Amino acid sequence: MTQKEQFFIEAADVETLVFDWGQVSITVSPRVSGAHNFSAGIVTMQPGGGHARHNHPGAEEIIHVISGQGTQMVEDTDGQPVTHEVGPGCSVFVPASRFHSTVNTGAGPLTVYVVYSPAGPEEGLRTLPGCKIVPAAPR
Prior knowledge:
It is a single chain. The protein is mainly beta. It has a single domain (13-134), classed as Sandwich (Jelly Rolls), CATH 2.60.120. Helix content is 4%, strand content 45%. It is built from 1 helix and 11 strands, in the order ββββββββββαβ. It has one helix at 121-125; strands spanning 16-19, 22-28, 39-45, 50-54, 60-67, 70-75, 81-86, 91-94, 100-104, 110-117, 132-134. The strands form 2 sheets. A 7-stranded antiparallel beta sheet has the order 8-5-10-3-2-1-11. A 4-stranded antiparallel beta sheet has the order 4-9-6-7, with no helix packed on it. The two termini are 22 Å apart.
């Protein structure tokens, strides 16, 4: 489902995908804003939480740390894990189809902004085991 263009979207205005490791609010996508070439959203991981090694076939990803501390892993072209401590202001590039994972190593929430290109990986999140979809609060 694609909606007409929306230019200004607050996280509170979209549904939240809740997992045992944290939550995701997709604020830009074909479904939410009418974007065609990418999607983006806010991911918050609780202390000790994070997502396991996974990939997004055919899609690149940018992960930008807004707040908190964590460990980011991205596999190199030989499939070897490259791990780096990340914090506010750090941007991570994940090449298309590359396996990666993120873990919150801090005492508080780890909040990141993610961008997928092309759009699509955000829809797969909805089908993951344990995903609870919380509708946006009425305004």
